Recover the amino acids of this structure.
C-alpha cells in the first residue's frame, strides 16, 4: 500500500476510512485514532475497546478487536469496515487461512455473513459467562465488559455498560439458553446490525450508565456528554418510540444541562454509575479509597499527589514509602506517631493490617473544615486531607477516611 510503510500513514488512512463508514457527524466527532508500538488503534463507540491494526516489517497487516463488549451490530460493522479497507487500500484479508488456523472471526460472520447466527453466538457467550459469574455469586462488585479502572459499589449482582443485573436474572440466563437469547438485546448495546433504533438507544443507555456525571456540567466535555446522550435518545425515539429513555430520566438530563454547574450533587437515585460511591486504587495500588462517583481525579506534583474534587468537598492524597538507615521498615505505630506531630487524635482505628488516626481542624479564613487522616503499615504511610464546608456534618469525611483499604 505504501512505498515506505509507516504508522503515521496507517493512522491517517484508518481515520479516513472510519469517517467514511460512520453515517452521522455526532458519531464522527467521537472518533479517536492513536499510534502505539507496532500499530494503530481506532475507537468511537463508548463501550468498545477499539479496532487495532498492526503493521509488520514485510508490509503485512493484522487487524484485531474484541466485539462482545458492544455486541453483534458492532461485530458486523467492523467486518464491513475491514471490507472497506480491503477495497480502498488494495489489501486482502486472509479470512480462510485464519479460520483454518483457529483464528480469524470466531463468530464466523466474516465468511458466512449470517446475522442471526452471529446473534446466536453472542447470546451463547452471554449464557456461558453468566454461568461462570453465578459460580462466584458470593463475590462483591462483579463487572462484565467494563473497562479496568475506578468502579462503583454496586447495589446489585453484576454491572455492565447497559446497567446492573440482579442475581435472579443472571441465574435465569445461566440456566437457560433461551433466556440468554431473550436477555441479549438488553445486555448488548448494539444488538441488531445497522444504525437503527436499538443502535441509538444503546448509545444513550451506555452514556446514562457510564458517562453522565449526574451533576451540572463542570466543563465542555461534560456538556458535550449530556448533549450527545440526549441526541442519541432523540434519534432512537424518532425511529421507534419503544426505544426511548424513560421520560423522567430525559427530563433530568435536560435539567442538568439547563442549570449548569450550580447543580453540585446527584439529586436522586436512578441509573448511572457516577451516582454511586466509587473505589479508586491510589497510585495504581495497593492503597484505595472510596469517594463519590462524580468526583474528578487530578494528578498533582508529577504524580506524587492525588486530588479528588467534587462540589465543595475534596480529598487530597499523599503516599510515602519509608526505609530506615539499616534498610529495615519502620514500624507502623512509629510512622503514625510521626505523622501526627504530637497532635491529639479525634479518631483512631485499625482495619486489617492498617492502623489509622485522624483529627479535625476548622479553617475559618477559608470557611473550610478539614479532617487530617494518616494510615500506616510497616514502611508505608498514606496521608489524606478531607475537606468540606465549615459547619457541615462530619459523617461524610469520616466515612471516606474509614473506607481506606490496602491490598497485599
Amino acid at each position: 500500500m505504501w512505498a515506505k510503510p509507516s504508522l503515521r500513514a496507517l493512522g491517517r488512512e484508518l481515520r479516513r476510512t472510519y469517517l467514511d463508514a460512520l453515517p452521522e457527524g455526532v458519531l464522527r466527532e467521537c472518533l479517536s485514532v492513536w499510534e502505539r508500538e507496532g500499530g494503530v488503534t481506532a475507537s468511537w463507540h463508548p463501550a468498545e475497546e477499539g479496532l487495532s491494526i498492526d503493521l509488520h516489517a514485510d508490509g503485512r497487516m493484522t487487524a484485531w478487536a474484541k466485539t462482545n463488549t458492544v455486541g453483534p451490530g458492532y461485530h458486523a460493522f467492523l467486518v464491513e469496515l475491514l471490507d472497506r479497507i480491503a477495497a480502498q487500500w488494495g489489501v486482502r484479508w486472509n479470512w480462510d487461512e485464519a479460520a483454518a488456523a483457529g483464528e480469524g472471526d470466531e463468530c464466523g460472520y466474516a465468511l458466512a455473513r449470517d446475522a442471526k447466527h452471529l446473534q446466536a453466538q453472542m447470546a451463547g457467550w452471554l449464557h456461558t459467562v453468566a454461568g461462570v459469574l453465578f459460580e462466584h455469586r458470593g463475590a462483591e462488585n462483579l463487572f462484565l465488559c467494563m473497562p479496568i479502572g475506578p468502579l462503583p459499589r454496586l447495589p446489585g449482582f453484576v454491572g455492565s455498560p447497559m446497567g446492573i443485573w440482579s442475581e435472579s436474572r443472571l441465574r435465569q440466563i445461566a440456566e437457560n439458553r433461551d433466556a440468554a437469547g431473550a436477555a441479549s438485546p438488553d445486555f448488548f448495546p448494539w444488538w441488531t446490525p445497522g444504525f437503527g433504533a436499538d443502535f441509538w438507544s444503546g448509545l444513550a443507555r451506555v452514556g446514562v450508565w457510564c458517562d453522565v456525571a449526574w451533576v451540572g456540567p463542570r466543563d465542555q466535555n461534560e456538556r458535550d456528554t449530556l448533549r450527545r446522550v440526549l441526541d442519541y435518545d432523540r434519534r432512537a425515539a424518532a425511529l421507534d418510540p419503544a426505544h426511548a429513555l424513560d421520560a423522567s430520566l430525559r427530563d433530568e438530563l435536560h435539567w442538568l444541562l439547563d442549570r449548569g454547574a450550580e447543580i453540585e450533587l446527584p439529586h436522586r437515585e436512578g441509573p448511572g454509575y457516577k451516582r454511586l460511591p466509587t473505589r479508586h486504587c491510589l497510585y495504581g495500588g495497593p492503597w484505595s479509597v472510596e469517594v463519590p462517583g462524580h468526583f474528578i481525579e487530578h494528578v498533582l506534583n508529577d504524580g506524587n499527589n492525588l486530588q479528588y474534587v467534587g462540589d465543595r468537598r475534596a480529598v487530597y492524597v499523599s503516599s510515602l514509602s519509608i526505609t530506615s538507615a539499616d534498610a529495615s521498615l519502620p514500624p507502623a505505630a512509629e510512622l503514625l506517631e510521626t505523622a501526627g506531630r504530637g497532635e491529639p487524635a479525634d479518631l483512631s482505628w485499625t482495619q486489617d493490617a492498617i492502623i489509622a488516626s485522624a483529627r479535625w481542624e476548622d479553617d475559618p479564613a477559608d470557611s473550610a473544615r478539614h479532617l487530617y487522616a494518616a494510615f500506616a503499615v510497616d514502611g508505608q504511610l498514606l496521608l489524606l486531607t478531607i475537606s468540606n464546608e465549615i459547619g457541615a456534618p462530619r459523617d461524610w469525611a469520616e466515612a471516606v477516611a474509614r473506607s481506606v483499604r490496602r491490598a497485599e
User: Anything to note?
Assistant: Residues 116-273 form one domain.
